[in-house]
Amino acid sequence: MSNLQPSSEGAKNVYKVIAGSFKSKENAANRVSFLQSKGIEAFVQAETIMNERMFRVQAGAFTIKENADKRLEQVIHSGIADAFIVSENTPVNQTPIQESIMGEIILSSEQLDLFVKDVSPQALEIGSYYISFGNYYGIRGDIAFAQAILETDYFRFTGIVQPHQNNFSGLGSTGPDDPGAFFKTPSEGVLAHMQHLFAYATNSPLPSQYPLVDPRFHLVKRGSARAWVDLNGKWAVPGHNYGQTILNIYQRMLNRMSSGI
Fold first, then answer.
1. Is the peptide bond before 91 cis (omega within 30 degrees of 0)?
2. Which of 36, 129, 162, 205 is the most buried (most CB within 10 A)?
3. Which of 144, 149, 146, 148 is nearest to 134 (CA)?
4. How many CB atoms are located within 10 Å of the residue 219 CB?
5. SS3 state of residue 25
């Protein structure tokens, strides 16, 4: 559960486009595949509805109702006539203090990519990987994206790690003589990032849908960092305020969302 400082700004409505709710995760995944084949971003979100475990397919989240209406129209036009919009209150202009690494994602991939492009217009659009892999592992993929921004300087790679490494989290990078891990594709690099966070955040076995690509997974003391600030001195050394810096970036992402993405 988040521990957030109160803010006079309160909460802001977020409009989520729901393109189906299923008892079967496989059926929900099939709906996601269908939407993606139509060029519509979507992912599965597990929720408890009327005391029953359901798998909802979310096809976007927006702070402007008109943008949600446009996405809903697009989803319905693809052939999903029973799609609908739900409105939820999301805290904005608040500083996360003990935000857990695992939990529900708030921001959409569009919001992630737009945020980083404000600073680095040529940045890779990899927000969708952070959302999809984050939801699969139960990791806050939107905050992990903030960590990638910190590690890569807004995907400008001004440090030791270089773009061709597809290493967005600085895995294994210790200095000029050891620039860290290399990954074949951006997708694989994000997958490794999420697996490494999973190793820190929980003692649970790694889910088996994807191969283990994190070369340092077994070097982590499992479950030793449940919250982002617990990464201080672990992911980065000395890293006294490493987790706080990640959360400060995420704070700016929330503020960007509140401006009307």
1. no
2. 129
3. 144
4. 10
5. helix
Residue type, 185: T
Residue closest to 109 by CA, chosen among 157, 66, 151, 58: 58
Residues 155-188 have pLDDT tens digits of 999 999 999 999 999 999 988 888 999 999 999 9
Amino acid, res. 36? Q
Closest CA to 6 of 82, 80, 93, 86: 93
**pLDDT 10s digits, 26-36:** 898 899 899 98
pTM of the predicted model as reported, rounded to 2 decimal places: 0.70
Residue 183, pLDDT score: 98
Give CA–CA dist 180/196, Å, rounded.
14
Kindly list the structural domains of the chain, giving each domain's residue range(s) and its CATH number in brackets, ordered by start: 8-93 (3.30.70.1070), 95-261 (1.10.530.10)
CB atoms closer than 10 angstroms to residue 158? 8
* 115-142: b (≥16 Cβ within 10 Å) or e: bbeeeeeebbebbbbbbbbbbbbbbbbb
CA-closest candidate to residue 225, choices 249, 246, 198, 189:
198
